[in-house]
Sequence to fold (514 residues):
Amino acid sequence: MKTDVERIETVKKGRPLKIPDLAALLVILAAAVLLPLAGLGQQAGAAVEITGTDGETRAYDLGTDARIELAGLTVVIEGGRAYVVGAACPDKLCEAHPSIGRSGESIVCLPQRIVIKIVGDGGQFIVSGA
Amino acid sequence: MSILLIAAVCAGFAGCDSALYKTFHAFVFDTELSLEVWYRGRGADAAFAEMTGYMEELARAVNRNDPDSGVSRFNGAAAGERVEADGLLFDMTAAAIGYYEETGGAYDVSLGAINALWHTDALGLAQYGAGRGQPDGLPGGEEIAAALAVCGLARAADAADAYDRRHFALTESDGKKFLTKKTDGFTLDFNGMAKGYAADVLRGIAQKHGAASAYINVAGEIAFFGKRFDGNLDTPWAVAIDNPKPGGGLSICGFTTDRPGLATSGGYRRYYPYAYPADGAVVECCHISDGRVGLPAGITGSAGAWRNDPGRVVSATALADSAMRADAYATALCVMSFEEGIAFLKTADVEALLFTDDGRLAVRGAFSFAPDFTLYQAYERVTV
Fold:
């Protein structure tokens, strides 16, 4: 049986990386680079809270893309942001609102009394675009 | 009531800005504009109260939805009539003339007739926006010429001074200020410009009441005061720009800034697509108009065959010394061609990002792009 010192010496003398090891390392490195980009800045724990015309509030994960159909409008969650499409009210101000993704940001549809708000550890970016 | 208060909350979420800032939301200008304030420091409640009062005062002066506002009285006046203009209306008109001159007519707050003709005003976009049908047709040359005849802030041919314009004049007498209309049908619309103007004033109110740091967003025009406190350090404000591509909710880029004023303009979701019945060719008519030619921004061609310029600017972000200037420049940069915009940026005191529909990006200034958003990297970049 080898002693610990012998085992260490064996490892030191061995090939530092075999081809399968290198491939695995490349996969890990690629994931380390690409995953933060795919996250697009959203932070864990953020949620979209939607208070509907019925007065009830429902929460959706900001990190999971979704289309939430409500009476009169659709809330799209995409890439860590939320925005409104297909508003049935006449002024469409909520459609023109920039997407939201930062904790505390909100989109309010006054005619239909719908409030969409980011809660939790949302991203720190203020979004501009109108 | 011109202001609807939605929420005034001292939130307590741990680990995010809400725990560090007191926030205030309201809808102003008869709920047409949203107001969002993040305030850190003493005097928040008093500051919010003063901000609310100021927005009511501003609406009385320039809210076109209020029939009793100063601007509504001017818009309803006949040629030759003189309307007393309070300080706010007078100042905003003077500022609008200044931006019109600086941008070569690309920024113009007197395009009501053009917007109505093309259905790109609030009424038309409500009727046709987001795929809800389309008008029976698009305007032709004679209609456009007729609308242009009652638009524009151009100087009068025989102007007595800088405030003597072709369609109106700003005058002062006996300590009072007046707007005198010269052309029937000429109108002014400050509901867009008021956003940046108000953001700058509200920033001053925050400073006066003792804010250490504040972020003020009036319907997309943004004013910053101080730096953003992240819980440990004062840091630059971090901004992301919405993707101008229809249906794209992802931000196209992000950066940090120390500039006090920021605005982004573009067609974004405020446009309607018109499909020609004969061949199905689609042209998008956005809410920003080019008063130099009487067309929605980014449209070229001729009557019966209007089309979108593939090289048009679809998103312009400007960072300036004030939100009002940033707003005026961002709007003007959407009206200008990409090449005109680059030429303008070479002389203006502004940092800017221009994205075109065909994948070009002009960058003016030393932007510190955030690694969180990478879509902008696919654009062919021009440094101004």
Notes: The radius of gyration of chain B is 21 Å. Chain B is about 30% helix and 30% strand.
